[in-house]
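sorry to bug you again but im stuck and you know this stuff better than me. what follows is a protein written twice so to speak, once as letters and once as structure tokens for the fold. id like you to explain what the token line says about the fold, in plain words if possible. anything you notice is useful, everything is just below.
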Amino acid sequence: MTRPTTQPTPHLVLDPSLLGRPVHRLGAFNERWREDLGQWLKEGLNRRYRAAFEVGDVTLVRGEPEPTAGRWLGYSHAKGPIHFAIERSVLLAVLAYRYGAPGGSPAVAASADALPETRTEERLATALGHHLVEMLAARMAAGLSETIESPAEPGFRASGRQTPRGAAWTLRAAVIDAAMNVSGSVSFRLDDAWMTQLLSRLAPPRKRPADPAIDTPSLPQRLQLTLSARLLEKELPLGDLIELRVGDLIPVRLGPTEVLVDDARLFTATVAEHQGKLCLTAFTVAE
């Protein structure tokens, strides 16, 4: 008895250039782009031409696109090119809704490969690609924001049919129209420059460094107390006190001085002269 062979599970190969980048947020970006594209189909085609286009799954992967993506159209920009492709079945369905072309029936739309390509079809693909590329660039600039400040980023120029070259990412959105039995996709090729911008927009805002702590003095330094020094006490007879005149001298001898805080005796200190001033020194805790 022969046991069925099991295929080994492929391992995900990490790209060192993506380490530390918010790649985990690309799924959220795909959902934002799905909403944008669905809104455009709803307002630009479904309501105007009574179409039934819907957006299916949206994927963004690095590597070569699927061979069924369609012919690629290039759009140059100062930041780098973006390439666009639309499957012919979807393009003919749009053409049928907009111009009443022979693709209007489900049977014809489903057999798109049997129909000859026309200049009108080519012009429509170029116009659709130009508009959607501008929309995509605006979405990438906005990141995951619900609203986009500018609905389209200007500066793109159509470059005709081009084959994308070099390392790139493919953003693919499935497009479905049940009324015409159409199932296809629109795809975009993004080079590393555009992906760098996108990932920078997807990165969560960095927390501002906390303000340096203010050097707050400790409680003993902040608590202000008034010290009163009772320098001396001398008893005089009432008669001597009454006979005192201006200029009279009373002989005294300074002993230990009491230091008071709110009339509470806390310390004793010695009075000393320093540069013509009387100073307190040699503090001791009062018993």
